[in-house]
Design goal:
Helix content is 52%, strand content 12%. By secondary structure, it is α/β, with parallel strands linked by helices. The chain has a single domain, classed as Rossmann fold (3-Layer(aba) Sandwich). A four-stranded parallel sheet has the order 3-2-1-4.
């Protein structure tokens, strides 16, 4: 089964600037058997909107459920097991949102759709081709 977990920037770009997601990846997303979006991404976007670092994403937060449904994606909740796994990753990367997404991908067998160089360099998670 093809199961893809979307990194936060992929969710934002699909909602606001889909052309920033490479055509090959957009095609893969459309043909995937299962798409997932993490609750961590909703929180990350909301935090960045609140702090003024992502003012253009206010609509994403307000329409989160609608956007996830339009993507035909599963809204994946964070569990305490996910959080413990994220904290225990043998990875010297401090971004807590990246750690949560990697943990969810590992625990659920998802391939992560991301452009993030730090995640792509981490050998502990499979990443979709960024093309």
């Amino acid at each position: 089964m093809t199961a893809l977990l979307l990194d936060t920037h992929v969710v934002v770009w699909l909602a606001t600037e889909p052309e920033r997601v490479p055509a090959g990846l957009r095609a893969r997303l459309q043909s995937a058997e299962h798409l997932a979006v993490s609750a961590a991404s909703a929180y990350e976007i909301a935090q960045k909107v609140r702090s003024g670092r992502m003012p253009g994403a206010t609509g994403i937060v307000a329409r989160w459920d609608e956007l996830v449904a339009a993507m035909m994606a599963e809204d994946v909740a964070l569990t305490s097991a996910d959080m413990a796994h994220a904290a225990g990753l043998a990875w010297e990367h401090r971004d807590p949102f990246d750690r949560m997404l990697v943990a969810q991908a590992q625990r659920r067998g998802f391939t992560l759709a991301t452009r993030d160089a730090a995640i792509r360099a981490y050998r502990g998670v499979e990443c979709a081709a960024w093309e």
